[in-house]
C-alpha cells in the first residue's frame, strides 16, 4: 500500500489497513472486498479502493479499473452463493447520490424481485432534441 493515499479518520482506510474489523472476501494490490455490515439483502458486498479517494471523480484510473475487476469477480461469486433474481453494481458520488462513506467504493447488491430497493426508475421517453444537445455538451467536455 506504499504510495497509496490514506486518511487516518476513514473507516474504509482503517479496514483496508487491518485497523478495523471486517468480513474480508478478497484483496489485490489496489482493491479490497468485504461484506457490507448493514446489508440491504443477503450477500451484499462492498469493493473498496485501497487508496483513499473520496469519490469516483478523484480516484485514479488504475484504482477504478481494479475496483471494477474485483466487483465483477465478487458479483460472480455472490450470484453463485445466494438466491437472487439479479445483481446491481452501485456506485454513489456525493450526498445527492446517497454516498454514505467518502471513500471510493462500489456495492455488489444481490436483488430479489419485490425487494423494494429504491434503485429503479420507470422508463419514460425523453425529448430527443434536448438529449442531442446534452450529448454534444458532454462530448465537448471529454
Would you kindly provide a written description of the structure presented here, covering whatever features stand out?
The chain has a 5-stranded antiparallel β-sheet with strand order 1-2-3-5-4, covered by helices on one side. The longest helix is centred in the middle third of the chain and has 21 residues. The chain contains 3 helices and 5 strands; from the N terminus they run αβββαββα. The protein is an alpha+beta fold and 142 residues long. Helix content is 28%, strand content 18%. The mean pLDDT is 93.
Q: Which class do the helix and strand fractions yield?
A: alpha+beta
Task: Give me the count of strands.
Answer: 5
Query: What share of the residues does DSSP label as strand, in percent?
Result: 15-25%
The major β-sheet equals:
5 strands, antiparallel
- Based on CA atoms alone, the radius of gyration comes out at 17 Å
Q: From N to C, what is the helix and strand string?
A: HEEEHEEH
Terminal CA distance reads 31 Å
Strand order of the largest sheet: 1-2-3-5-4
Question: Rough shape?
Answer: globular
Low-confidence stretches: none
Proportion of helical residues: 25-40%
Mean pLDDT: 93
Number of helices: 3
Q: What topology emerges from the helices and strands here?
A:
Layout lengths: L10 H6 L7 E4 L3 E5 L9 E5 L11 H21 L4 E5 L14 E7 L16 H13 L2
Antiparallel strand pairs: 1-2, 2-3, 3-5, 4-5
